[in-house]
Amino acid sequence: MTNTDTTTTMMSGPVWDWTAGHGPVTGALSATTGMFAVATTGAATGMPPGWALAVGAAGAIGHTAAGIRLRNAGRTIAARASSWLIGAGWTTWAMTNGPLTFQALGSLAVIGVGIGTATRSTNLYEEAREEEAIHAEERAVAAELSAERRAIAEEWVDRIRRVCGITVRVLAVEHWATGTGFTIDAELPGGTTYGKIAARAEGLSSDAHLPHGCTATAGPGIHQGRTLIDVATVNVLETETHYPADYSPLSVLTGIPWGYRSNAEQILTYLREQCALVVGPTGSGKTNMVHNILAGFARATDALTFVIDLNAGSAGLSWVLPALQHQPAEGERPLKPGIDWLAGTVDEAHTMLDAVLRIGKQRKIAYQSLMAREDTDLLPIGPTIPQIMLVVDEGAEILVSTDRELKKLAAKILEVIRLLRAMGVRTVLTALGATGAVLGNLMIRREAKVRVALTGGEKEGMDLSKLFPGTRGLTVEQAPYKGAGFMGTPESPAGLFKCWRILPSQIREIVAATSERHPVLDAVSVKAAGEAYTRRWDADRIEWMHNPAPAAPAAHEGGEPGRGLNLTALRERPEPRQDGRSEADRLADAFMQQIDAEFGTTPEPGTTRPEPDRPRSPRPGLNLSALRDDDGDSPTESNPAGREGGPDWLADAITAIADAGAAGMKPSAVADLVGRSRQAVRDALKAAAERGELVYRDNGPHSVYVHPDHA
Q1: Of the N and C termini of the chain, which has fewer Cβ atoms inside 10 Å?
Q2: Domain 624-710 adopts which CATH fold?
């Protein structure tokens, strides 16, 4: 046998725990073997028997003192002292008469059994005493709490009877774990609904002398005959709380936190099938709320966020720039933006919405077998097939706008809301107020079941009864703080809430923490979206994000005047006809001819109108910069469109028009590209079309110039 085998054999035996305490059996065995050893040794060596008796008496005294200090029961102290005295007496007798006789050994065995039995009995008694003491303490605490709850119940029964005129029976009072209030579970009298209590929430709060921002809100109970009354006693809405530093993964299927209730508990939104509407006037914290929403979506592992903000993309830039400005170290992966697509212009918004509609329709076709296999009519959303969350800042205003271009945009947004729920595309719209114009659209009221009203104390345009129909007792005065308001979901009734304060530094932290967590759009959706999606981060598409300089003023595509001077030189003009004369000139000439024919008037000297085909001479007037070229001359004086071959920038414009393909380019787009006035660009493009270098496609306000190769 080898050393290894020997070691294995030795370690396979019983393992003794020498630090463990004695139980009834091991204690009795230890006591009897000790007594026998002392008696045998003392008899063999002639030890005086009185020593054993003295040791036993000392042990009895010591255990008695220890038992008193530990507050043991009297029977426990007596049993342990008796064990010492009996053991000492037997040892003294055995040393005198011999420990190896049958009488000595038999009596020792009887003493051992007696010690073990007494020990077991006293241990059980001490455990019972300890449990009884714990239960007694718990009963005392429960009695104290019960007394407090009974006092609260009696107080609120009387208050509800006095304020609401009904008598309820309180079944339970539960204090919130946060210590900021409590919930009353009450049974309603027959034929009464909780709405009668909810309608008098202000009166109950006033009668209870609750702090400002605290309310007594009644909601549905376990059945229609019961109600839960939430009473907030500490105003947690007046303090500013930063966004939680926990950036752990989230899912649209398990809920995204958007803020916290007055009881300091987080409120979750479930947006797999629901859309959301967030309203808030200027200064109420709506932009901060949008960042809270984007933070939740950035943390989700099964959602991609598309953002439309026609206000220069301001809502999404904070989530894009940290990634665009990131300079990765060697071996470090570049950061991904916190959102997947950002549209800051009407044209880019059209491009995004067209891509989203193609994605939704293609998903309906491509994933039929998957939904059949999963036995569901909803597309299974996950990291491999992410949900698309379309966030439109001031989107509700787009839906009710009378502008022609925005109407087209609104039609596409409504189509997304109406058609793509099952395919995992949902929207979050924001608005400046809860007005009839915003909430007049049936599609918004029907689909936006998650609703938020950030009041900030603003009363104008905040009709809470329209935003939360059927909910009573909500007033703007209850939430006068920035970032505070009311929130309702299908899972929780409308009530007070507040969103977290999220700082720009936290946005950068979230972008960095969630960069590797963002899902990738599934191949079916990428193919359906096409280059509009795959090239969304191309340099030419995101150049405006890097340019801090303000853009040159331009007329609105929908015909609304832009800000600043309404200069004729900067206005959109109808394209001149092929003879070079505008429709206004033709109407003026026809009117003058009619007057001459009717009255036979003769032109006065010096006022003769130029012939229709005769070119007009330049009119004196203001030397407007809008009419100058780079050299300072006006287009009429320098006549850039009349020079052979056109101005120097015309070649770049023709190249851009050729790259645009069959869609062509508007003169306004060319003007923005080359940095010239629109009138100068129109004259140059018209001259180029007359030379055959371009083809003009007349389509009213959507007229474009097309390269001959694509005409």
Answers
A1: N
A2: Arc Repressor Mutant, subunit A (1.10.10)
Asked whether the predicted pLDDT for residue 561 surpasses 50, the reply is: no
Instruction: Write down the domain spans for the chain.
Output: 23-135, 166-232, 256-324+335-546, 624-710
Distance CA 319, CA 339 (A): 6
Q: Cα(224)–Cα(600) distance, rounded to whole angstroms? A: 90
CA dist., res. 360 & res. 334, Å (int): 30
Of 310, 492, 264, 287, the closest CA to residue 413 belongs to: 310
- Is the pTM higher than 0.90? The answer reads no
> What gap in Å lies between CA 694 and CA 658, rounded to an integer?
9
Burial of 541 (0-12, 13-18, 19+ CB in 10 A): middle
pLDDT in tens, 326-373: 888 888 888 999 999 999 999 999 999 999 999 999 999 999 999 999
Confidence of residue 23 (pLDDT cuts 50, 70, 90): low
Q: How far is it, in rounded angstroms, from Cα 146 to Cα 152? A: 10
Exposure b/e, 82-118, CB count within 10 A at least 16 = b: ebbebbbebbbbbbeeebeeeebeeebeebbeebbeb
Q: Check: CB of residue 140 under 8 Å from CB of residue 157.
A: no
Task: Report the distance separating Cα 260 and Cα 476, nearest Å.
Answer: 18
Could you tell me how far CA 405 lies from the centroid of its own chain? Answer: 31
**Model confidence band, residue 554 (pLDDT cutoffs 50, 70, 90):** very low
**384 neighbors 348 (Cβ within 8 angstroms):** no
- The yes-or-no verdict on residue 692 having pLDDT over 60 is yes
Task: List, for residues 120-153, the tens digit of each pLDDT value.
Answer: 777 777 777 777 777 777 676 566 657 888 889 8
Q: Note the maximum CA span of the chain.
A: 166
Q: Amino acid identity, residue 273?
A: E
Average pLDDT over residues 42-50: 71
Looking at per-residue confidence, does 578 or 546 come out higher?
546
* Of 405 and 560, the one with more pLDDT: 405
> Phi and psi at residue 512, in whole multiples of 5°?
-70, -40
- Structurally, at CATH architecture level, domain 256-324+335-546 sits in 3-Layer(aba) Sandwich (3.40)
